[in-house]
Design a protein that fits this description.
The protein is mainly beta. It has one domain: Regulator of chromosome condensation 1/beta-lactamase-inhibitor protein II (Methylamine Dehydrogenase, Chain H, 7 Propeller). The protein contains no helices and 21 strands. A 3-stranded antiparallel sheet has the order 1-2-3, with no helix packed on it. Strands 4-5-6 form a 3-stranded antiparallel sheet, with no helix packed on it. It is globular and about 60 Å long. The protein starts with a strand and ends in a 35-residue tail after the last strand. Pfam families: RCC1_2 (PF13540). This is Chromosome condensation regulator. It comes from bioreactor metagenome.
Length: 272
């Protein structure tokens, strides 16, 4: 639904088109002609879209082949890292292209992926973590539903809504629905629709403590975007290239609230 690159932000609308704002120096915001998109992902300088027919489109920097996805088919999910793109196919295969080509031939029953700065991370159907970089320790990671990594830190979201991390104090987090790791810390979306942050002592994260009714988040090292329950897109942080110019975006129209039926028997005759 929403994805953030180094200095750009992209979002998929309910009609399958894609909005983009921010730096377009590498063509990463050239999504105006895209259609039938079901999900998006963003790398540092490229953008990836998954079409409804299982094919993949990409635009932006292709120095390392991160946009070489034209022959991918039967895809059910796409992911992007700084200079990499990965996907899970409907028959469980892992595809990846870009600066680092990871050996995932032994990866099976993978539920979802994420791409850190130096590693491809995965969660198996049984909640166990997968990672291509031995420098990311996962000793306490189990029963996961999501696993994300940045430069030298990672975090895992457990099925009970708690979070584990190898670099941040996340012991008080609970009721979490989604996480996004950056090189400066962690953003966590909870069941109440609010977003909590955990930053390293040397770093600063955008203050989003006033956000509410959030249903999805995505963060880069310097900015964060969130989708509200009524389809608006909030963004905060660095916007030197316009990456936070999302004020006019509306991704979907909420379903109308059902009108309650009148109480009592509508056929009853009032007493005189």
């Amino acid at each position: 639904m929403i994805a953030t690159g180094y200095k750009h932000t992209v979002a998929r609308k309910e009609d399958g088109t894609v909005l983009a704002t921010g730096s377009n120096l590498s063509g990463q915001c050239n999504t105006a002609e895209w259609a039938d998109i079901v999900s998006v992902a963003a790398g540092a300088y490229h953008t990836v879209g998954l079409r409804a027919d299982g094919t993949v489109v990409a635009t932006g920097m292709n120095t390392y082949g991160q946009c070489n996805v034209g022959n991918w088919t039967n895809v059910k999910a796409v992911y992007a890292g700084a200079y990499n793109t990965a996907a899970i196919t409907k028959d469980g295969k892992i595809l990846n292209t870009g600066y680092q080509t990871w050996n995932t031939l032994k990866w099976h029953e993978v539920a979802r992926l994420s791409i850190g700065d130096y590693a491809l991370c995965g969660v198996m159907d049984n909640g166990q973590p997968l990672v291509t970089h031995s420098g990311l320790t996962t000793d306490n990671y189990y029963d996961l539903v999501a696993f994300d990594a940045a430069t030298a830190n990672s975090a895992g979201l457990k099925a009970d809504g708690t979070v584990v991390s190898n670099g941040l104090d996340v012991s008080t987090l609970s009721g979490i629905l989604a996480i996004d790791c950056t090189s400066n810390g962690l953003f966590a979306l909870d069941t109440e629709g609010t977003v909590t942050t955990r930053a390293f002592s040397y770093a600063h994260l955008p203050d989003v403590s006033d956000w509410s009714h959030i249903v999805a988040i995505s963060a880069s090292a310097t900015h964060v975007a969130g989708v509200t329950s009524d389809g608006r897109v909030l963004s905060r942080g660095a916007s030197d290239m316009g990456q936070c110019n999302t004020q006019e975006w509306v991704l979907f129209t909420p379903a109308p609230t059902p009108t309650p039926e009148p109480s009592g028997d509508p056929q009853a005759t009032p007493n005189p």
